[in-house]
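Task: encode each sequence below as structure tokens.

Item 1
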Amino acid sequence: MLPLFLAAWLAAALADNTTLRYEAPDDCGWWLRDQDEVTLACKLRTINSEYDTTNFTVIPSEHTTALRIHCDPTLMTRSSLERRSFAHLTRLRELALEFCKLTRLLGGVFEGLEDLRNLTIRTRNTDWPAFSLELDGDAFSAVRQLERLDLALNNIWSFPENIFCPLTSLLSLNVSGNRLQDVSDLGFREKTPPPQPLMSGPDGEPVEEKNIPSPCTLDIQVLDTSGNHFVLMPVQGFSALRRLRELYIHDNEISMVNDKALAGLRHLSYFDLSNNKVVALPSDLFRDCAESIKEIKLQNNSISVLSKGLFAGLNQLVSLDLSRNHLTSAWINGDTFSGLIRLVMLNLSYNRISKLEPTFFHDLYTLQILNLEYNSIEAIPPDTFTPMNNLHTLILSYNNISYLDSYALNGLYVLSHLSLDSNVLEDIHPDAFRNCTSLADLNLNGNKLAKVPTALRDMRLLRTIDLGENLISDLDNPGFIGMTNLYGLRLIGNHVTNISEKAFSRLPSLQILNLSRNRISKIQSGAFDNNTKLEAIRLDANQLNHISEIFKEVPSLVWLNISDNQLEWFDYTVLPAGLQWLDLHKNNIPELGNHYNLEAELKLQTLDVSFNKLTKVTANSIPDSIELLFMNDNLITKVEPHTFIKKVNLSRVDLYANQIEEMDLNALHLTPIDKDKPLPEFYIGGNPFQCDCTMEWLQRINTLDFHRQYPKVIDLEAIYCKLLYSRERLYIPLVEAESNQFLCSYKTHCFATCSCCDFVACDCKMTCPLNCSCYHDQLWSANIVDCSSVGYTELLSSIPMDATEVYLDGNNFGQLTSHSFIGRKNLIVLYANNSNIAAVNNHTFTGLKRLQILHLENNHIKELLGFEFASLLGLKEIYLQGNMIHYIDNRTFVLLKHLEILRVDNNRLLKFQVSLFSANPYLVEISLSGNPWSCECKYLQEMSAWLRSHYAKVIDAKYITCTINNRTNDLGRVVKDINITTCSPYAGGSRGIVDRKVLQDYLPLFFFTSIIFLVCLTLVFSALAYRRELRVWMYTSCGMSMCHRAAGFEDDDERLFDAYVTYCIKDEGFVTQVLAARLEEEFRLCLHYRDFNLTAYVADTVIEAVESSKRTIVVLSRNFLVSEWGRIEFKSALRERLKERRRKLIVVMLNELSPREVDPELRLYLKTHLCLQWGEGRFWEKLRYAMPQPTRRPVCLQPPSQQPKLILQPQLLWA
């Protein structure tokens, strides 16, 4: 799919850009934004990766003000940006990078772009979890004029501290669709110092507490943090953004919101917390923004409690959405929405509200839209909505309301739309709508009403009413009285059986009437005569059997659906002249009647008569005005010529799935179509077409478009046709049929130029032999005679002289005499197989110079003396298998220079000089098996050598064997496998083959044993080379540990923890929510910042933690190198303990670190210990394998968030 900017590029390419000379790089397009400002769009594979080296300096700097780069989204390859990559583009104001798999954004990348206003970086790393984007702290320091920053969909885990501080002009920030864990990671929270520092001074005294500066103040007005992994809205989480107006934090995992989560946001007007897991909201949440908040989105949470005073004082609130929560009537009272004096829209749908109280909405006099659908409301108390005198839309669908009281809708004087559908209404009080004088649209469908409610009487402003899916059976009592402006009436799915003359007579403005899916079997004449504005009627899925004198007097009718009824007769005289759309499908209509020839007067544009019983299509059965015609799935067998002449508006015709076998070309002939109009589209597949000689035109119909008088057959390639005669396939795709396969049958035919038609012996007179079938194509270039299995004992002399294919198989000829086929000079294919032929004479095939295929298989031929096929110089295929041939003269096939296929298998041949086949240069397929070939050494030597050199041609070479004894039919070895050195004479002096046990018989066993040895050796070396991967696989798949635990660690079971995890505080989100969350399902962990006593000396704490743990896990990142590894006491303590327990260290690398970032000591640890890269294949399996056996009993049963801080002191650990 092309990106949006490429689509814009294509559109702009139409503009005149010749006034500006601009040389765009390859794979880039450009268009003018202004007179001298250019937008450049480039489509690259990657940026500075292992595949590509990208040089942005080739981009012209003079006019380029916007640059958009789109990388290949299918390549999982890292891209990178070097420092000052765009430094020469000094006029650039907009930069966008899409789908480029950046994993780090260095400081200085944007140097030189002082005028940049909009920056978008969307790597879509979310599609490849192994990639995440890291940003340097000074990544944006060079673009201080930035106004809009979009960092969505980058898989960002955290931001460096104060990264956005240089962006003093920033107005909009989008960080949605990342993996942010904590709102504080954004850096917009006013911080407070921790109670005590972790580090201690040199004398053991705590270091003096430092003041942590507040975050920088920014002018951001729009912040989008949606689609991350926040679980908490902390106190003052966004308080640094004093001018924030719009906050999007939807689609997270927030379950808790603190009291002052929105503290300091005094200008906030839009707040979206939808699609989270919030259960309750604090009462003071909106206190600071009470004077500015206008729209609140809280839908699709789990809110079941509304705190008292939550919405108090929000006098500017216009829209409140609380839908799809768990609210019940117990938590909604008169104070819940009090004071919302400007509220216009309130959505409480999809909750669990079971009752309404008149006090609920007492202050909502400005409310215009109230949505209460999908609740459990059973009744509406009197005067519930009285205060809402401005309410114009009330939705109460999908509740359990069974009765509507006379005072339930009191006070709703301006109500225009009321939905009460899908309730259980059985009756409505006659005065229920007396105060709803402005009601225009009323939905009562999906209830249990048994009659038209009396309450609808005299509702003169009512425009539409839906009474569908009820139990109404009578439309006359009480009927529709006084609804003079009603234009839409829906009665679908009721139990109506009869439409009387007065049913709709008092609805003068009625335009749309839906009566489908009822049980209507009769409509009285003139039932719609008084509805002079009626335009559309649905009567489908009823039981009508005629429509005479029903619609003729409704001149305004333009749309009529009478499908799925029981109509058995139809004529265009029953329709009004102005009708444009008619659906008659799924009836029993056998013919489209047009008794008065109205085709030129009708205005019908769309006609659907599919699934009926039509048998033919004629010109007067289709109106001349037709545009769309659907006649599929009928019984049509004939389309008359010139049917579609004068149908000048025709655009589509469906004739598929009928019974059409043949069709004349003129049946699709059209009135000439203008060149500026597309040709009509026809669908004719699914018919049992016969590919006879009159249908060859259909194969080429789409090539006749230059005539502009024939349609385009859209499904031509899907059409299958039945071949009139074929021995291989009965049905083939029409487009694959050869010209000579379009055949017609004949008995006698004489060409017009023939002068001897009245005589018996006439060469140009075609007479099909008795009991035979004969076929020809349109030009008589193919003439097929089929006399198969008709019981002839003599060869026929009446075979037509121009026959091209003759089938005589399955008869009983005995022998083929000389000159049997004399004069058949056009014969190409001859079948005489299975006909008990015992002999073929030398001149049997004389005169058949064009014969290419000859079938003589499965006869009783015993020998070929050399000249039987001498006259067949063009022969390509000859089939002689399954005979009794014991002798073939060496001259038999020598003259057949064009021979390609020869089959002599399953005969009685002892010898034949196979080397003579070299005289047939085109021979590509030979079959010789099933013959008792001689086992004489000399003959075998010749035949075996020839087989090996022509193995590809002999299709049954592996089945050709010699016969040792012709009487007992003892078979020898396969000829192609015989080694001639094993062939020796018998003791009596005659030559033969001795099948002895020789040393070579053991060669297969030796070869097989050698292969097994080599395979075993390869497996051993592979196991050694990949022993670590093999151990991991065995451990994860079979639960087996191979050479994993050393003898020196027998005391591991006495240690308190399975692993001690040390990390940087900035990586705590990854450790606690990803690493520890997964490992603590099986192991007991000690986390550095979660379980340490903050008052303890760090060196002692590290020593005790390592001693108390079976493994030590170091989460290595750049943050760790800068903070933890930089502490002398931390590094020395960890080093001393690891000297004694070197084999128990596991390093988990969060980032790819260059060698210069790692000091020599840490580099040594990485080389000598297990090192795992986060995101690599089978990461969790390798980590579990490196861990010890899980401790059986956990330290405590509380969740991690409720566990107390562990105090690691010797007297407690070793007590």
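Item 2
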Amino acid sequence: MQTLDPLTFPLDGNRMIEASAGTGKTHAITNLYLRALLGHGTSDTHYDVRNVLVLTFTIAATEELRGRIRLRILQAARDFEAGASDDAIIATLLESVPTDGARIRLLAAAKLLDEAAILTIHGFCARVTRDLAFDTGTLFDRQLILDGSTLRLAAATDFYREEMVRLSDDEAEVVLTAYRSPQQLLNEIATLLPREVVLSPAAPSDPGDISQLKQLIDHIKGVWISENISKLVLESGLNRNRKAMKAPYHVAMKDFALSARTTIADRNLDWWTFAKSTLEGAVRKNGKAPEHPIFEAIELVAQGLDQFSAAVLANFRRRAIERIRERLAEEKARASTLTFDDLLISLRDALRADATRGGALARRLATQYPLAIVDEFQDTDEAQYEIFSRIYRNSSASLIVIGDPKQAIYKFRGADIFTYIDTKRGLGDEGTRLYSLAINWRATPGMVGAVNRMFSGDGLFRHRDIPYPGVTAAPVEHLELTIDGTPAPAMTLYSLSGSGRTIPRNRARLLCSEWAAEAIAVLLNAGKDGTAMIGEAPVTSGRIAVLARDRHDAGAMRDALGARGIKSVYVTQESVLLSSAARDLLAILIAILSPANERYLRTALATPLMNASAREIDALGTDVRAHQELNLEFSEYHRLWAGAGIASMINAMIARRGLAARWLRHPDGERQMTNLRHLAELLQQRASEAPGLHRLVKWYAREIETATTVAPEERQLRLESDHDLVQIITMHSAKGLEYDIVFVPMAAFGMQERTAIYHEERTEDGTTRHRTVVDLQNSADGLDRTQDEQLAEDIRLLYVAITRAKYKCYVGIADTDRPRVRDSAIGAALGYTGGKLADHLDVRFGDFEHIRIDDLDISRTQYVGGTSMVTRRAARAPRNAASTWRVHSYTGLSRQIDSVLEDSIDTTPGFADDDVSAPAPEPADELTRYSFPRGPRPGIMLHLLLESAGTGTPLDTACEQMLARFGLGEAWQTPLEDWMTEVLRTPLGRAGTALANLQPDASGGAPRSAHELEFHFPLATANAARITEVCAEYGYLTDSRLSAGPLQGAMTGTIDLVFGHAGLFFFADYKSNHLGDSPEAYGRDALATAIREHHYDLQSLVYTVALDRHLRRTVDGYSYEACFGGAAYLFLRGMHADVTDSGVFWDKPPQALIERLDVLLAGGAAS
């Protein structure tokens, strides 16, 4: 490969230029364009701006390129007029190009540049099919639609419905397990529809007859129960961390065995868990696998079902690709529409036509555009390359392709790096047609050296045709980043310290973002002090960029910067439909569709986007006039939407409610308003294509649900402001940009591929090229090859991210649980294959600055030039600072108690409400009620579990759901289920029943119990001291007193359970407190102590007053003495089904006390 000389590079034939990051690719294009206009090296041919074809991939890139070319032409025109130039290229052209007429040609070219053929590839195809409609066979009246997703979904839905009818019950069951909706199917195959791919296997598969397999399944079901196979497995010598030793898998198998189902595809059932080979591979040291013929039978079932499912799904995917393609073509022909993909395919197919017609079209285009320059060629695909190849392959016209295979990062858009590789091989076989740019004009020598050091490993880019050509820094004087007068190292690696164990990704994201934000705050403060400088200029926010892999990384970084008073702006290719404003607007549009629906109105008003005050929302239920005005307002929006369009309606809403003025007072106000106006444009565009209010909202809701992280250009989040702010930008969006200082806080990224689509070389018609292979069965080999290609793309993406830096780059590395560093791009770049990450970095990259961090290292330095970026909160009604009005609860009152006991709530572990202050116990060898986790979260889980079980949910299902929701581990399934069974069956002596009997009335009558009964009642300046005195007279609160001061406002609370039995009303409160590890620890005396220590007696009094008030108003003939049975405090860890009232503390306060408290709480003076 030769080094490119812009003055001697031949402008004839087909040639390729490889340009590494920062090597001046765009500058080279402008020089080649300038030479073409002047006829330099073109056999005295002077090209016109209208016949030099320059192609790139985005509209923004074409405009930038057009602007750069215009500036270069005007610079050359001035220098030709002056007869001299400081620019080496132009100076040489002055000497070798006749000046007569050169300046005139250049000025004319600058004036005509708006007509120049500088286009996107799709724009070029659109121009050709429009201007040469007869040659390309394109109908005149076909309408280009920007978004073909609706057509694709309609075609997929039609196919899905028809296919479900055609399939057998067993086949349909397999398909429905894999694809629960047409959209899910479409998500997998959408990018394949416009492409020519190889389907593997080549022919449909025969799923075979599974009737014998189903008979074997029935046999297994019977044996599993009759011979208690679960017990056999659980008592074996298997490793307890394996799935076969975890309760949910046994529960699923038991449920299936007891059921009448013959299902062969169940998401909750994994046959391989109990297969013989799996069990033998899960044996712990000195252990023994369970032995039984059933495990061999299960293995046969697992193998058979895998084969059957693979064949069914392969056939389904094949038909989906073929039939949805056909349906799309039929529908587009019927509606006379075409998409951007159709532009490419139409031109390609026209060029493919018979030699007479296709050849004539190719010759005509080669004559019209005798010189073509294709930028960013690494982002092409097979169809695009075939168009260029057929036009320029056998022609005297010239094709120059420019790109960098190390920056091919758009596979998700259909870009195909293997097209680049095949093109490079073809040109390389012809001799000296490959050129490279080897000088980096962007970065400092230190930064260039650091990049060379990181990416020059043999075979790092995973393909022999993508070597890493070491580049050199430009031979010019470079500015430097200095800190305290000392040059800063170009590369800083910071790694999360640890003992070799992985770190949860969310935790790593938080720590790496915090550390990066802290480093930025320190840098900016040093810039303010004049000690962090780039040349003579201080480091400021606008010179720093943070590159994030996804919106989650970006969000964590924005929060970390905001906490330090550092303003930032998020630049991304992410869809605006993923923003919070998009979902808020959906709620608002639903309310506008039904302005009389109060629930919709309230939801709309409560969205952050509407920015309404709490008082305004509350007025909907308390102020009739306000409610009517809001109804009229939304009705007017409805009328305006129907008459003038949705964009006009949204603009009217912004003006009427003053949303712009309200939002711009918030830190993220510009972002919200930019998103809202962008969404209005998208909705208006869609409304013009498919009229109808309800239809539009339905489309909008679906688009929100299916929005992708990297969106088409018209849907990408727009920049709200970048005025001297730290830029947070996704790695894909950063391509082509440069920043003085770059942070990559989470450099270990990657994803697990689940669909096997890869490339392999195939020879067809004597030509060897890479073809896209779709492994319809998602075989292990196919997935491995796909994963390797994805890792190669991740390495290229990391290269793009790090090469954005001019002076310095900070790279954060954490060995997360997903992915592991050793399996990620940064691991490949660093040559890390395992062991202690920090030690590896010190040994292999000792020339880089390396900082080990942990959460103890990270402080929060405030940026001295910033402002506090507090999170926006809901508006609050103004309140007099001296006001004593409060919303009170038992919990709040208990905190006001000044206890006179020596052992207070804060010093007695286990005696807090649901063990709020109890320390976490050591990991237990045995899983029991006593070793069950303590603290608020487990306590809440038990409350919810009992509520769920008490309202009809099967106990095993409730336990499984709660354990999964609270992340307490599958191993607790059986112990928890056994414990809760005991709780539900424990006799409640005074009530004469048990919790298990308090199910809703199946006849449809009133339920015998009510869970989580909420109450509110007013407090009219109750005297706290007097309440304490009255309670003490009856033996309550004898060791405590409420703090002085009136109780004014409202009392609120939630009673865990209210139930009726035998003509009496009771309430119960669940307590998960850990009082000891034996039944004796939960005797009556121990419970009484816990009640007293934690002021549960106060809770009993408040709840009893509330329930008594409610019953007096709702139950005819009610009296406290005759109808109220008492309060039961259920200490769950102490409840046993064989002992009446075990773990239960009963209390029924005297009627006189309740009556006096009722008066006191109402503001009266009880006697």
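Check on item 2: The CA atoms of residues 131 and 138 lie 10 Å apart. Confidence is low (pLDDT under 50) at residues 868-883, 898-913, 915-924, 1001-1006.
End of task.
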